[in-house]
Design brief:
The chain is mainly α. About 70% of the residues lie in helices and about 0% in strands. The relative contact order is 0.11.
Amino acid sequence: MSPKPAPDLALRRDQIIRAAREIAESEGWGAVTMRRVASRLGVTQPVLYSAFTNRQALIDAVALSGFSEIAEALEAADAEPMARMRAYLDFAVARPHLYEAMFSMPTDLGFGTENAPEALRRAFSAIHQVFPGPDDIRAEVAWATLHGLATLQTGGRQPESRLQSRLEHAHRVLTQ
């Protein structure tokens, strides 16, 4: 009998991340436990711990995957402020639990630092590209504004009917 091939760690990590996201999307982040993810995948918890040291590391990996996706969405949008703003909001509204992992849950990811993960830098760069300035302040305020709008929108705190008007107003203020 030949030995079992070593598992592909990158594939295993992707499967675990996907399972955690599926649980979060259907039941919320409170339901995402290492035991629950292992059960979903039909593996033991030590299999998960071979890929992620703990639940926080898993949530950080989910958040990082979200930053890669939002960077792709922003980069795919027209390089015009209003298009990027809309792409950002559309991303947040379409994936509220992923967005929550990215921005609302505790994280060990470095933001705004030299050693920030590449996905975070790419996402920020896509905002900075359309809100340039001599330093990062204008882009940071644009991101904060978009984040506020996204958080209020996904939380149902602002009427959907005025979403476009809010975006247009933010665009005018940020591009003056």
